[in-house]
Amino acid sequence: MKDCYGRLKNIVGKEIESFAVVQMVEEYRRYWRPPKQVKLILLAESHRYTTDIDFQCRLDLSRFDLSSYPNNFVQFVYCLGYGEKELLVNTPTLNPGTKDYWKIFYSCLNDITSHGDFFPVQKTKTRNFLQRMNNKIGLLKKMQQEGIWLVDASIIGIDDKYKPIQDIYTKIIECCWNYYIGEVIAQSHPAHIVIIGSMVKDVLLSKVHQLVGDRYSTIPQPAAFLNAQQRINMLRECRAAFLSVGNRVV
């Protein structure tokens, strides 16, 4: 991964996110990797750019059974402190969370009929902090057990502070695939890949097809301009993708 980061630094320049943050994001990702077969990969764009100052914030995990869980804050859905200020010892400058990706996670394992179905992992619905955190932890553990894993197309944050123009965006995604992410996915032997977002699809669709053939599907970025029913239909695609793999072994 360090070689990939060095190549990205030549593309991005001094605005690139620190390697310490990139390493921590990968540590979180590896923590939640399915221990056996990876059946379904959710291929998203990237975590959100995390500053060095915010990276110094720590998580208080004393109330939860999470052995060896990392505790540096990063703006990444696999970091339980993202969007959950009660879990943090100190306060980062940015911590909006990512409710849309929790909906994607939840949809992979549950039949969805309305937006009210997501209440177990939504702050606006499950206001009890301990209950909500245990619900989230339970969901992540279930995803591990069922072989569902989130992988980002970029190892560096390319949202918020630094959102590159299309030409640089393409170079970043292609660099990450060629020098790290492509091999990570290939070694996982997924039964199916869900590509999240049109920009990721535009850059990587042919490469994903070369890797898994027709065993992929695509959905819009959760922040896309969709009406309520379109969002439900999009989330149902995640459930359909998981059900399609069943007990398949690749």
Report on the structure:
With 250 residues, the protein is α/β, with parallel strands linked by helices. The chain has helices at 2-12, 19-31, 52-55, 99-109, 129-146, 166-188, 198-212, 228-245, and strands at 40-44, 148-152, 192-196, 216-219. Strands 2-1-3-4 form a four-stranded parallel sheet, sandwiched between helices. The longest helix is centred in the C-terminal third of the chain and has 23 residues, at 166-188. The protein is globular and about 45 Å long.
Main sheet properties: 4 strands, parallel
Shape assignment? globular
Q: What is the percentage of strand-forming residues?
A: 5-15%
Number of helices: 8
Provide the structure class: alpha/beta
Poorly predicted runs: none
The span between the termini is 26 Å
Write down the secondary-structure element order: HHEHHHEHEHEH
Radius of gyration: 17 Å
Instruction: Output mean pLDDT.
Output: 93
Largest beta sheet: strand ordering: 2-1-3-4
Summary, kept brief:
The chain is an alpha/beta fold and 250 residues long. The chain is built from 8 helices and 4 strands. Helix 7 (198-212) links the parallel strand 3 (192-196) and strand 4.
